Amino acid sequence: MGGVGYQGRQEDLLFLGREGEPVQGFAVKLPDSAALWIERGYATPTGYGLGRHGWASFEMKEGLALSTSELEGLVLESHAAVAPKKLRAAR
Predict the structure, then answer these.
(1) Is there a contact between 28 and 14 (Cβ–Cβ < 8 Å)?
(2) What is the DSSP string of 2-46?
(3) What is the pTM of this model?
(4) I need a labelling partner for 44 at 20 to 30 A (CA). Which of 51, 54, 59, 87 fits?
């Protein structure tokens, strides 16, 4: 996907836009809810075959605003998908 990415335990957690450019979207690993977000029209399957593995891409465009709690939920689900089992159990 290119651009700025964040990892949790050497696993990709979140992809943002390219370095030095305004963020126009992001991609997160959502094994439990990707299909729901895609069905609701908020996201599309991430390219490069990542969509088959639960990755969803969100484009920031007018009319599809996410609340802070929704965004937090996306990041937490993505983190849980790549976090070690021990850390997931502690949550």
Answers:
(1) yes
(2) -S-EEEETTEEEEE-S-TTS---EEEEE-TTTHHHHHHTTSEEE-
(3) 0.77
(4) 87
